[in-house]
Amino acid sequence: MANRRHGLRPKLPQKRVKPSAKTNAEKCRDYRARLKAEDPEKDEERRRKNHANAKKWQNSLGPEEKERQKELSRQRQQKRRQKLREIKKDSPFPSAKSKPRAQSTPTRSAAKLMVVKAGHKREQARIRQARRREKIRANPQKHSREKEKRRKTYQDKKMFKRLLIEKEKESEKDPGEGIKEEIGLFLSDY
């Protein structure tokens, strides 16, 4: 009632946001990525403008304001690094030195790291396949000989397994038949 007495409006219920809704930062990130993919020239122009504006703003600052901005920037960087350490702790992957730089961005969650890791594995597989194709192109006869060898060993393994299975079946049949025959002989005595 105090609010109404002083002429203030009562608080309206806040609009509920879906948990799946994107934040403005995510929307901006998506837009920048899309722009870079679709129109690199426009993206480059945007980056140049941003850079020029940032420089202009920095030049307009006084010396104590510049120091304050530096300190704030350092604190933000520390927070980012701390967040990254926590993410790395939660991550199921061991931290390898050979990881691409994109994987170690501080804002990535463990789930996103998993996706990146899968993408990295696919990339490695693509590279392996490309090397294999190059070898085949360089020496197709050698490749066909190796392929034939692999096929033959595979067939041999298959045959060996089949023989083992047949032997097992035979060995399973023998004791049972022997027992049945013994029972038959035993019953015929009576």
From TrEMBL:
Residue stretches of biased makeup (Basic and acidic residues): 24-47, 63-74, 143-159
Biased composition (Basic residues): 1-19, 128-142
Region (Disordered) location: 1-159
Full protein name: Coiled-coil domain-containing protein 86
UniProt source species: Elysia marginata
